[in-house]
Amino acid sequence: MPIKSSKSIWRNGELIPWDEAKIHVLSHVVHYGTSFFEGLRCYRGQRGSVILRLRDHVNRLSDSAKIYRMGIPYSADELCDAIVETVRANGLAECYIRPLVFRGYGVLGVLPYECPVETYIAAFEWKSYLGVKAAEEGVDVQVSSWSRQAPNTHPFLSKAGCNYMSSQLIRMEADVNGYGEGIALDREGFVSEGSVQNIFVIKGGRIRTPPLASSILPGITRDSVMQIAGDLGYPVIEGRIPRELLYIADEIFLTGSATEIVPVRSVDRIEVGDGKRGTLTKQIQDELSGIIRGKKPDKYGWLTSVDVD
Ligand SMILES: Cc1ncc(COP(=O)(O)O)c(C=O)c1O
């Protein structure tokens, strides 16, 4: 999907024209992958435009940087305000938002401290990551031959740009083999996550999801689903998932801010259930979209309004 440009990008405290958001080729991030980012969405519903779980995304951004000993030169409040301002200034009633912090131009060499921390926020239109029909029809996935890194290699609780080289390998392999997504195992051979999604597996009315220790990103949609499912009477079990549970599951779905909630139709060409979106998957999708679209109360306090003209 090509990026659809909007008007301005927030850079270090001010809005600049989209085309001016450029960096030097010798920036630290280009060579050593020193970036941390977020992906979140603004939705248009009956209550106007709302950003979903803004504060949680900003908090995760700062956690991601902290793991790598990097401070962000803006407070959480300032970043939240800047994100709202970027959406508003671009007049985007519904959009994807990409806050990004990275080490810029300064010195070469892996020790990053002398390189400035650059902060950017972009907002632009972006449709559902796995296609508009995926939420209903689901995707066919394969278990990837690429595992997620062991916990003492790259920290997965940090949403760092460099982690996405692993994601690229997983997604490219799935693509080459004719699948819509790939599911990585962790270093012990248990289910980890999709290339950019967390995973939930349902069997006999029990919903399971891999624990943080299985090299997963602590997904914010994952957290929303856990809260919703719990309140629907299905407390989610966080625990290691053997690969073969994927082949005998009643329902599987993937979650992410870009992907939203997408059912899995088959794994390694084995149908999940009857190959159709399951009832629990739909119930959870409906609950979340009801909140986002303003048809249900924002009972968890997840929404931040944006006054878009
Ligand atoms: C590797 C990975 N796992 C899981 C997720 C889902 O996280 P979230 O629901 O916070 O978007 C993402 C998306 O950002 C991701 O990149």
Automatic annotation (TrEMBL):
GO terms for biological process: isoleucine biosynthetic process; L-leucine biosynthetic process; L-valine biosynthetic process. Pathway: Amino-acid biosynthesis; L-valine biosynthesis; L-valine from pyruvate: step 4/4; Amino-acid biosynthesis; L-leucine biosynthesis; L-leucine from 3-methyl-2-oxobutanoate: step 4/4; Amino-acid biosynthesis; L-isoleucine biosynthesis; L-isoleucine from 2-oxobutanoate: step 4/4. Gene3D superfamilies: 3.30.470.10, D-amino Acid Aminotransferase, subunit A, domain 2. It catalyses: L-isoleucine + 2-oxoglutarate = (S)-3-methyl-2-oxopentanoate + L-glutamate; L-valine + 2-oxoglutarate = 3-methyl-2-oxobutanoate + L-glutamate; L-leucine + 2-oxoglutarate = 4-methyl-2-oxopentanoate + L-glutamate. InterPro entries: Aminotrans_IV, Aminotrans_IV_CS, Aminotransferase-like, B_amino_transI, BCAT-like_C, BCAT-like_N, BCAT_family, Class-IV_PLP-Dep_Aminotrnsfr. Its cofactor is pyridoxal 5'-phosphate. One of its GO terms (molecular function) is L-isoleucine-2-oxoglutarate transaminase activity. CDD domains: BCAT_beta_family. Acts on leucine, isoleucine and valine. This is Branched-chain-amino-acid aminotransferase. It comes from candidate division TA06 bacterium DG_24. The lineage of its organism: Bacteria, Bacteria division TA06.
